[in-house]
Specification:
- The structure holds two protein chains of two kinds.
- Chain A is an alpha+beta fold.
- Chain A has a single domain, classed as Beta Barrel (OB fold (Dihydrolipoamide Acetyltransferase, E2P)).
- A six-stranded mixed β-sheet of chain A has the order 4-8-9-7-6-5. Chain A has a three-stranded antiparallel β-sheet with strand order 3-2-10, with no helix packed on it. A two-stranded antiparallel ribbon of chain A has the order 1-11.
- Chain A is globular and about 55 Å long.
- By secondary structure, chain B is mostly beta strands.
- Chain B has a six-stranded mixed β-sheet. In chain B, strands 3-6-7 form a three-stranded antiparallel β-sheet, with no helix packed on it. In chain B, strands 4-5 form a two-stranded antiparallel ribbon.
- Chain B is globular.
- The chains are: A alpha+beta, B mainly beta.
């Protein structure tokens, strides 16, 4: 039983180098493209999220954050990844999106040299959660998150509409 | 010795029972490596291994084949598995050493689950041939 030649999908590895930020949620470590993160900050200024029925439809939304005239919708990463209660302490504000992500901690910026495709045997929500897997130091596997999945397009549209409704009600 | 017309199979133990995979699908029997986990929602998958720079998912089929009472798994049987017309490696935790054997197929009884591809007659023992791809897709529909 010798090693087989590389199977096609497992050879599907993007070789581009990329800077990522390592963060932790519930004891798991993840990576996110550094270019996708605009700012990392503490939890000060978070406001409880309350947009009527949208709260129950998008249960992972925890807070909003007002920053430089923009309202950011803050997603609890533990809920997004269906994990147990986390101990968040940091907020990652995403670039080019009104989305921020609540995480337990941020670690460091590092460079990955390859992005391995998620094996096809993974068939559930994780296919949307991750862009792929990175192997760090040849031994540690770290999922690289798909930052667009924290709030998808339809969720963002519903949130924007809800926010406009609330603001309209306030000004009237 | 392999009789003409007989195919070769790798027999693997899960507790008291043995199961088989076609030998051409099996690439390696590996010692327990450090299993690495990350959040996901696909049933049966317990994590991934890094083998020679490649990421190999670990699929604990014992939960389906023998139930929750299976003894601790000691080795990983690494086999090619077909997903969406592509082959990928998958590691199956097994409870002991494996054996390469050949045998004629015995007829199916008709009561086997869809992921049992056939039966091998090994003396008085009937060893089920497992179709890994069918087992995994049956347990983890997308």
């Amino acid at each position: 039983m010798k090693g087989s030649p590389k199977t096609r999908s497992q050879a599907a590895t993007a070789q581009a180098r990329e800077d990522v930020i390592v963060f932790a949620v519930c004891g798991f470590r993840f990576a996110i493209a550094a270019a996708a993160v605009k700012e990392i900050r503490g939890m000060e200024g978070l406001q409880a999220f309350n947009l009527g029925g949208i709260n129950s439809r998008i249960a992972k939304l925890a807070y909003t954050l007002e920053r430089a005239g923009t309202t950011y919708f803050v997603v609890d990463a533990a809920r997004h990844f269906c994990l147990a209660q986390a101990q968040p302490s940091r907020v990652m504000i995403l670039r080019n999106s009104p989305t921020a992500v609540l995480v337990d901690s941020t670690d460091r910026i590092m460079e990955i040299s390859a992005l391995h495709a998620l094996p096809r045997v993974f068939t559930h929500e994780e296919r949307g959660w991750y862009r792929g897997l990175a192997v760090v130091n040849g031994v540690v596997v770290m999922p690289v998150v798909n930052h667009h999945a924290f709030l998808n397009k339809s969720e963002l549209e519903a949130l924007r509409a809800g926010l406009e409704r609330v603001r309209g009600a306030v000004t009237v | 010795m392999i009789a003409e017309g007989d195919k070769a199979y790798v027999l693997f133990p899960l507790g008291e029972k043995r199961f088989a995979l076609p030998a051409e699908a099996v690439t390696e029997l590996a010692r327990p490596d450090s299993l690495q986990t990350f959040p996901h929602r696909t049933p049966l998958l317990t994590g991934v291994l890094v083998r020679r720079g490649r990421i190999v998912p670990v699929c604990d089929v014992a939960q389906v084949l023998v139930g929750p009472a299976a003894p601790p798994r000691k080795f990983y049987l690494i086999a090619k598995c077909k997903f969406d017309s592509r082959h990928e490696l998958t590691a199956v935790p097994v409870t002991g050493e494996c054996e390469l054997a050949s045998a004629a197929r015995a007829p199916l009884t008709g009561n086997e689950p869809r992921y049992i591809d056939g039966l091998l007659a090994m003396g008085d023992e009937r060893v089920a041939i497992v179709a890994l791809d069918k087992l995994i897709s049956a347990e983890a529909p997308a």
